[in-house]
């Protein structure tokens, strides 16, 4: 006895058709950018892998600081006016030039590294605090990298100094959020959480810098251990992993 072949009901067919139409009409995933690599240059011939990683990390950290300077100026426009700049863009550009030329910052009384950072976060500091803070952070980071922003085979990094820089930045970000000026307000308006807004973009940007420092510190520590392992592997490979003649 043959059983009749069952066909989909009209309702089921309608549901299937709507599902297919919905799948076809679903929007494509939003494009969120692509990895941007630097152009190749002859300078890379003088860099090891770790040199290249350190150079890229430093470049990204400085770019993050320039973005933070711009964001802080947007929320604290009185700061760039204190410094006498004609506008926010000019203030960021002037700050960037001072950092990349490794020149001091006059309102910081030519202090450098953590001494400059301490002054920039002092409640009584009355000049452009955005410029002072970003310049001091950048100077501290560069000092932790041996005073350099680009690294070659002859250069070495101290893992402990990188680790210390990450902890210093954590402390500085906490002080920026917790300390109050003479009027009882925050040193700078940055992250904000309230009923209408949740803006943690500053914390995320600082977090990326800290993460890169910690990773580079770990990679630097690994470098010497891996060099020994690589040497032993080379000896083992040269002794035991050679093909034998068959004729």
Automatic annotation (TrEMBL):
User: Which superkingdom does the taxonomy of this entry point to?
Assistant: Bacteria
| Signal peptide start-end | 1-32
Keywords linked to the UniProt accession: Signal
What's the name of the protein?
Lipoprotein
Species name for this entry? Paenacidovorax caeni
């Amino acid at each position: 006895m043959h059983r009749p072949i069952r066909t989909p009901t009209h309702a089921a067919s309608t549901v299937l058709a709507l599902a297919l139409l919905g799948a076809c009409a679903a929007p494509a995933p939003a494009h969120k950018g692509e990895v941007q690599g630097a152009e190749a240059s002859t300078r890379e011939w003088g860099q090891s892998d770790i040199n290249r990683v350190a150079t890229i990390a430093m470049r990204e950290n400085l770019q993050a600081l320039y973005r933070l300077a711009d964001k802080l100026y947007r929320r604290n426009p009185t700061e760039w006016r204190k410094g006498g700049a004609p506008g926010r863009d000019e203030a960021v550009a002037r700050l960037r030039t001072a950092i990349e030329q490794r020149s001091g910052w006059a309102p910081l009384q030519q202090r450098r590294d953590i001494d400059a950072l301490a002054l920039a976060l002092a409640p009584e500091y009355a000049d452009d605090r955005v410029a002072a803070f970003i310049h001091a952070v950048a100077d501290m980071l560069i000092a932790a990298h041996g005073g350099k922003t680009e690294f070659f085979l002859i250069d070495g990094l101290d893992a402990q100094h990188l680790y210390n820089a990450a902890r210093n930045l954590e402390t500085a970000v906490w002080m920026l959020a917790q300390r109050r000026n003479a009027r009882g307000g925050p040193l700078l308006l940055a992250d904000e959480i309230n009923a209408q807004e949740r803006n943690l973009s500053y914390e995320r940007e600082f977090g990326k810098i800290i993460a890169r420092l910690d990773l580079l510190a770990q990679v630097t520590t690994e470098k010497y251990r891996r060099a020994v392992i690589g040497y032993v592997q080379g000896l083992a490979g040269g002794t035991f992993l050679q093909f034998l003649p068959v004729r």
